[in-house]
Amino acid sequence: MSDFRIRSSAEQVAAHLRECLMKRVWTGRMPGSQKLVAELGVCSNTVESALKLLEQDGLLVNRGRRRSRQIVLPKETSRPTLRITILLYHSSDLYVHYMIELQHRLIEAGHTVIVDPKKSLHGYGMDVTKIARYVKRTETDAWIVTAASHDVLEWFAQQETPAFALFGRRKELPMAGIGTDKHLAFRAILKRLVSLGHQRIVLLIAEHVRKPEPAVFLVKFLEELEEHGIKAGSYNIPDWADDQDSFYQCLDSLFEYTPPTALIIEQPGRFMAAQQYLAQRGILAPQHISLVCQDPDVYFDGFRPSVAHINFDSNPMLRRVLRWAHNVARGKTDTHYSKASVEFIDGETVGPVPR
């Protein structure tokens, strides 16, 4: 299933109570559960669970049965907060479920979040000069940069304003970030496809992941093909510019002479575009071709046939970004990089090679 997390009632109540505590609506002792039940209009179990979450956060101390909880606020009278600007890879990323949740979590933590969907890395053609011009005229305390090229992230790493690499080609740069290690997921995909008789397997991925040198997981992808006895080369990872016209030209070229029997496509939007392109030519998955999307999407659960895709748990990513924002707001240097685990979710868009 795609990673789409709806916060529980207790978490929503805890968020409201946390905000009240920070605004010092109550001081000293927390009102009792029954008073909060009457005030909030929720059940006692939900209130009690919310209070326990605040205990875990260190904002409340349980003083025992029939005794009100003690309020323990941070020493500072007001939390240090940031004005954080998110630079999207593509304007459509604004509606990705984990990006929506990230904005909510940052705002809940007291930060101001700025996102301009008209300004994106894709829109700037991943051009460092154009991006730098936009960044320098933007007033902000910190940047979150989504799925950027190495050149773009290298430029951000050289600036005084802290930046966080949310995915992208950060390798060995002195900046905070989180990424995904897709190698094991691709290994599982290839194992599945080869077991179904596929030999002509093509991976369609953005130009900045292929150039100037291919990302490590792409090199491993080609090596895995060779290990399965498939001669690997440019056919398996074709060259195309990062725009829709070039994407369709690439598909035209692929299906002109030696059509692939399996396509692995990045981004749900491009996956759906390819699916529509193929359907117009009478090529359906899984009857005539196998299709895999490299990224999750909340809507995949409702697709028929169900979509084979790579999925990841967004919660570690969200926690890492929030921890970075917390550190930066307090003047701490944070350049830690971590990786979120991913997995291949098999689906009905994958099937045997047609006879």
UniProtKB/TrEMBL annotation:
<dbReference type="InterPro" id="IPR046335">
    <property type="entry name" value="LacI/GalR-like_sensor"/>
</dbReference>
<dbReference type="InterPro" id="IPR036390">
    <property type="entry name" value="WH_DNA-bd_sf"/>
</dbReference>
<feature type="domain" description="Transcriptional regulator LacI/GalR-like sensor">
    <location>
        <begin position="191"/>
        <end position="333"/>
    </location>
</feature>
<dbReference type="GO" id="GO:0003700">
    <property type="term" value="F:DNA-binding transcription factor activity"/>
</dbReference>
<dbReference type="GO" id="GO:0000976">
    <property type="term" value="F:transcription cis-regulatory region binding"/>
</dbReference>
<protein>
    <submittedName>
        <fullName>Substrate-binding domain-containing protein</fullName>
    </submittedName>
</protein>
<dbReference type="InterPro" id="IPR000524">
    <property type="entry name" value="Tscrpt_reg_HTH_GntR"/>
</dbReference>
<dbReference type="Pfam" id="PF13377">
    <property type="entry name" value="Peripla_BP_3"/>
</dbReference>
<dbReference type="Pfam" id="PF00392">
    <property type="entry name" value="GntR"/>
</dbReference>
<feature type="domain" description="HTH gntR-type">
    <location>
        <begin position="10"/>
        <end position="66"/>
    </location>
</feature>
<keyword id="KW-0805">Transcription regulation</keyword>
<keyword id="KW-0238">DNA-binding</keyword>
<dbReference type="InterPro" id="IPR028082">
    <property type="entry name" value="Peripla_BP_I"/>
</dbReference>
<dbReference type="InterPro" id="IPR036388">
    <property type="entry name" value="WH-like_DNA-bd_sf"/>
</dbReference>
<keyword id="KW-0804">Transcription</keyword>
